[in-house]
Amino acid sequence: MARIIYALSGQGRGHTSRVMATSEALRKRGHEVVFCCGGTAREILESRGERVLPVPALRQVMKANRVCLRSTLRRNWKRVLCAPRITRRLARAFAAYRADLLITDFEAFAPRAARRIGLPVLSFNHQQVVTETRYPLPARHWPSAALTRAAIGLIAPRRPRHVLITSFFFPELKHPERTTLVPPIIRPAVQELRPERSDHVLVYYNQSEGAEAVLDTLRRVDAPFVVYNFGAPSAHRNERYPNITFKRPSLEGFLADLASSRAVICTAGFTLISEGLYLGKPLLVAPNGGIFEQIINARFLQKDGLGEAARAGSRLTTDDVRGFLDRAPRYARRLRDFSGASGNDAAVTCIERVLASVGAGDPPASPRPPAASERPAASAGSSNGAPAPAGSQHAPTAP
Q1: What is the pTM of this model?
Q2: Would you identify the CATH topology of the domain 3-185+342-374?
């Protein structure tokens, strides 16, 4: 079928989970997939024996549940200055692979390399729900929204063949002729889980700084908690926090604790929210301050009656947690009609329509011409001339 380079952000595990699930489905359809990433994503993929085209990873620096803009700029500045050299190196690697399509999940350098050699690009992520949809927003969030839109504009490809967005909420698309919205991508390991209801509440924060304040809040709540990413267990911590079980990093253990939990408390990252909803788990989220994508995730979770949210960047209080757990059965009943929705098949269908629009098919690969003038003739219907995939907005019935 087709040869695909799949680029992804190297920070965190959410992008990697989505990309691995999608690439597995594409391979089952006969497509070849190699990856392009750095950071945590590269470590995970290479540990599984995957071929990875390495690229420096841009990272956000978090402090006390907020993005530290100054530290983030300082950490990434040298890599940004080296962008032309990085892009040239990637372009040579892409040309040697003779790919038919680049899919990018919020990776900054790969789309620019693809543009140099005329390789078509599909942008597939959750972040662009911020820029490609319409939604009401209180004035207090306008500065954060403007900054986030600017950042997305710097990272996302400028003229992709199509924009594919995965989301658990479904606002109006600004450009439905060139954008497709599908439900969350759910990895097979989560689809295979059989949700149960035990007594414990699963707690996960994406950064451990300030963990003691969260733990002190949980200690005062009469409920058992299982926590990940809050440091290693110890005799001192077990004595200080008798109702909290500290778990070491483990994918299998985490998924088992997620499936058997009665509720989830977490930062407002898209992947864990989506998997929690898929399994029918009530959610209390604490958005990282300065990450507008998490703010909008939290707002729609609350607006749609699927869970609760703390104010962005603030610390959960004992009353927040107690009140949420009292109301959790109500959310669990509401989630019965929501759980089980995934966008895996719809996403693969969209990708294959984009592949068809660029002429990809048997034999497995065709070389990418080096100049834009040699690209396939443009057609009406999308931002760069490629025909838009049918069904440009897909959303299940809201519960």
Answers
A1: 0.84
A2: Rossmann fold (3.40.50)
Cα dihedral: 33, 125, 308, 251 (round 10): 20
The pLDDT of residue 370 = 34
What's the pLDDT score for residue 40?
A: 87
Q: Cis before residue 111, ω within 30 degrees of 0?
A: no
CB 298 within 8 A of CB 270: no
Tokens found for residue 125 = 């992520």
Higher pLDDT, 210 or 246: 246
- Say what the pLDDT of residue 394 is: 45
Residue 17 CB burial class (10 angstroms; 0-12, 13-18, ≥19) = buried
State whether residue 221 is helix, strand or coil: coil
Taking 3-state DSSP, the helix, strand and coil percentages for the chain, each rounded to the nearest 5, stand at 40, 15, 40
Pairwise CA distance, residues 164 & 178, whole Å: 9
Query: To 10 degrees, what angle do helices 110-117 and 83-97 make?
Result: 60
Average pLDDT of the chain to the nearest whole number:
86
Q: How far apart are CA 269 and CA 93, in angstroms?
A: 32
- Give the per-residue pLDDT at 183: 96
CATH topology of domain 189-335: Rossmann fold (3.40.50)
Rounded CA-CA distance 307/125 in Å is 23
- State pLDDT tens for residues 110-158: 999 999 999 999 999 999 999 999 999 999 999 889 988 988 998 899 9
CA–CA separation, 361 and 346 (whole Å): 19
Separation of alpha carbons 101 and 368, rounded Å: 9
CATH 3.40.50.2000 in the chain, residue ranges = 3-185+342-374, 189-335
Instruction: Give Cβ neighbours of residue 71 (< 8 Å, ≥ 6 apart).
Output: 61, 63
Question: Are β-strands 3-8 and 263-266 bridged in parallel, bridged antiparallel, or unpaired?
Answer: unpaired
Count of CB atoms situated within 10 Å of the CB of 378: 11
